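[step 3/7] inverse_fold.run input=structure_tokens len=151
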């Protein structure tokens, strides 16, 4: 048993350099390869996620600007429609005013023509009355005038 223990001790003593080399290799691997690789992967992941988040933020901002633009466009269209409606109302009012003015002028002309006709009618009746009186006097004079008999 002593020999087994001694062989086991020699084996352990012989494996110490291998254990040290393995430990040193693991440490160097962790320091030289694993940590920088993990850092690069984390940086890549953060940049990728950051780019995705930035893209999402840009898309949200673009949608907000689009919505704002559409709202402004709706307001501009409504404003144009209101202005067109106001111009149309003004044109209709101007047309109605012009028609009313023409109607008033026509009414005034008709009234003036009626007055002229009535005046002409009254003048004509007065002339007829005076001519009728003169004609009646002439008729009475001729009827009452002695008739000369031709001999």
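[step 3/7] decode complete -> sequence:
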């Amino acid at each position: 048993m002593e020999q087994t223990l001694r062989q086991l001790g020699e084996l352990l003593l012989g494996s110490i350099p291998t254990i040290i080399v393995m430990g040193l290799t693991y440490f160097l691997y962790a320091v030289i390869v694993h940590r920088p690789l993990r850092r690069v992967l984390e940086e890549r992941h953060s940049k990728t996620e950051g780019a995705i988040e930035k893209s999402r933020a840009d898309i949200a901002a673009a949608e907000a600007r689009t919505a704002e633009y559409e709202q402004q466009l709706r307001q501009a269209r409504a404003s144009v429609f209101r202005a067109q409606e106001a111009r149309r109302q003004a044109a209709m009012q101007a047309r109605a005013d012009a028609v009313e003015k023409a109607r008033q002028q026509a009414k005034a002309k008709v009234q003036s023509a009626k007055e002229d006709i009535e005046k002409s009618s009254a003048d004509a009746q007065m002339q007829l009355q005076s001519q009728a009186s003169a004609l009646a006097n002439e008729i009475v004079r001729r009827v009452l005038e002695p008739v000369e008999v031709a001999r």
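[step 4/7] annotate
The first helix runs from residue 2 to 144.
The helical segments are 2-144.
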